[in-house]
Specification:
3-stranded mixed sheet; single chain; 8 helices; about 230 residues
Length: about 230
């Protein structure tokens, strides 16, 4: 297939690529496309919030406030989903900050990753409407697990194929990146098992993603400064 033979070259720092061959996709275009998919996913989540039909006649302000308070569970789900997508977006750019070029395998991994990013918005919509069903939580956590795992595969592929920009990146930094990328999908995967015991505990277990990200990044900064 022609698509499978497409090569990708470029730099994240937006250096001009001398090769203007139509058979090549510049890496900065791949990243721009990915950013658009992330933006779409977040936008879809926002417009999926189920706003109730509020009669304008004979409604007191207190009744209006009561109706708005009924939306709080949806806003909570949206906030969590927004933060998770945000974490994956930050991690995605951290990965591609080190990638100088690519090939068809990495491009297809990237497309598959973006496909599951869009599924996060779908899972959020299901959670809005059918959050009381256990299968919805399992589906949501599974999508998050696969999404994070694909980002890990992207990093492993880039490392294996020697596609990193910074040749001086040491073993510790590479391993830390792998650890940092692996933690979120690992937590989401564990939460699936916990959900069969207590789904509420499994939901709160996701908080570890944010805690671990903050702690590990702070620890990494301290080690690098030594």
């Amino acid at each position: 297939m022609v698509i499978a033979e497409i090569e990708v070259e470029g730099k994240f720092n937006k250096d001009v690529d001398d090769d203007n061959s139509p058979s090549k996709i510049r890496l900065e275009h791949v990243i721009s496309f990915s950013d658009a998919i992330f933006a779409f996913s977040i936008t879809f989540m926002a417009i999926s919030i189920q706003i109730p039909n509020l009669p304008l006649n004979n409604m007191t302000e207190q009744q209006f406030i009561t109706k708005l308070l009924q939306l709080l569970p949806q806003f909570e789900i949206y906030a969590v989903s927004f933060m998770i997508v945000g974490i994956y977006w930050i991690s995605y750019h951290r990965v591609f900050n080190y990638i100088r070029s690519s090939h068809s395998i990495l491009i297809w991994l990237n497309l598959l990753f973006l496909f599951f990013v869009t599924l996060i918005s779908f899972a959020t919509y299901l959670d809005f409407k059918y959050g009381n069903f256990h299968i919805v939580f399992v589906l949501y956590a599974s999508i998050l697990t696969i999404t994070g795992s694909l980002l890990v595969f992207i990093w492993l592929n880039a490392s294996k194929e020697n596609l990193l920009i910074d040749k001086t990146m040491n073993t510790f930094e590479r391993r830390f990146m792998l650890y940092d990328l692996s933690m979120p999908p690992g937590i989401f995967l564990i939460s699936i098992g916990i959900s069969f015991i207590d789904i509420q505990v499994a939901q709160y277990f996701w908080i570890l993603v944010f805690v671990v990200k903050i702690v590990t990044r702070r620890r990494f900064s301290e080690i690098v400064k030594r």
